[in-house]
Design a protein that fits this description.
mainly alpha, 22 helices
Length: 580
Amino acid sequence: TSFEKKTGTMQAAMTMNTLGLGAAVRPAARVSAKKASFTGAPVVGKASFAVRKTVAPKAARVVAMAADAEPIMEAPFKGIKDDLAARGPLYIDDFKQGISTKSLASVFFLFFAALAPAIAFGAVLTSATAGMLGATEVILATAVGGVAYAVLCGQPMSILASTGSVVTYTAILYQTCVAQGLPFFGTYAWTGIWTSIILMFVAVTSSSNLVRFFTKFTDETFAALVACIFCVESAKKIIMMFFNSNISSTLAMGSAMVAVVTLGSALAISNFKRSPYGPEGIRNAIGDFAPTIAVAVGVYFAQFLASNYGFSFEALSLPDSLAPTANRPWIADLAAVPNNIKLMSALAAPACAILLYMDQNITTRLVNNSEGLKKPGAYHLDMFWLSLITGLTSICGLPWICASTVHSITHVKSLTDTAKDPSTGREKVTGVTETRWTPLILNLLIGLSIVCLKPVLVQIPMCVLSGLFFYLGLAAMRGNEFLERVSMCLITDPNEMPKTHPLVTGGADLGTLKKFTYMQIICLGIMWWVKGSPAAMLFPILIAALGPVRIVAGKAGWFTQEELNLLDEQVETDPGYVKA
């Protein structure tokens, strides 16, 4: 039935969300680029606002709003002007910082991590829209929009891509057009134009200030969800081969071996930088290229099995040309669309705007709060350019894109330098290369993949990429305090708590730690269920609801203010809130 088809489309799209969402690094304080005397960073807007405080391990960790914190909405263009004032003087430095081997390693790594999801989303869209949209459109939207965003945005560490929630929305919009007899591309174009207008209003009025009500509770729960999705879906793709009657058990076993070899190579080479063998500079350089080397090892191993044992692995598939998937012009004839459809499209736009707003702002918050970043964020300037990119992709019949969590956080991590803290045995961030070169070159390569790189890329087996994505999930779990607390919940004797963990040294009570962690686990379970249900389109709304859940926990007295300060961060709605 039509409903069953719609449900299947939504589930498929949200399953592919493993490639469009991602994991967050643990947020930590960073130095403001505008005011070096601050320890912390602006959550939104100017450096004088919303400063995150960094305190000693045994003291309370507090996120407090200054007395002159921004309102939810501000005077027209004020937020954009503040972002330009903060990021403008750093623009040249964004390019200077990127001239390094670490940037080169990041581009190679992200290229495979970005291209394969683009092709996968293209396949989902082709099925969901009966061939109206496909991989060509996804690749072009990613390349063109990504290059423009890398050059013009405020925070270049964010990477634009299509996400699972947007693919789901597009599928539902197509089903609605079919059911109502509406022209798809005309409706799609005008829905995107109205969405662009809404996002422009958000940017002009500084409405992204809402993200200041999110805390580590939201960051780490969302990060854990996406990390688990990455691992589960990557493993599921290989495991399901054993239950596919069209695939022999021998081929399934060979694919599993290739995936494991790729994963093992990435882990071993990445961990080499933490070993005591060889000069530190050489170890770090090899570790930076770990994912790229692992892909090469996996491809070589697959070719060895193919040449010696006759295996025939499914390979990466690319479009044959840059022509549209459907027989149509690249530019939609907006004037030819009936006026009633133009007005009806305005009714569909708010839901699309909410999806893009949530995906964009949650991802940019995670990026801006990543440990080691020193330059300020630019939420309103970034939203301004996203609104224009949304309008352009709509007119050209290209998929809508926004900041993708997996690509963005992986981008930050790939450019992060770490060292082992001898006092705790834990890794600490020593610096991050903040540059525009990596997203710029990355998206140029994605655009050239169809024209120049196809003969090489089609040699890469999909099972190699499955191993790579599983590695991304494991790497994303590192440093997530929520997942560390999940393992602590298994401890029954308080005396057996890890002595050097910051929560333990800060005086965390085992019972309180478990209660707070169980609350996050319940939220994680609900989001996991929704992402694969017919209500999958509500997934970004649930992410936004994590903020109110944390606020209720403070207002309802489930935890004392001291406990919240230790396990999370203080927000202005807490009963025991103390201004900075």
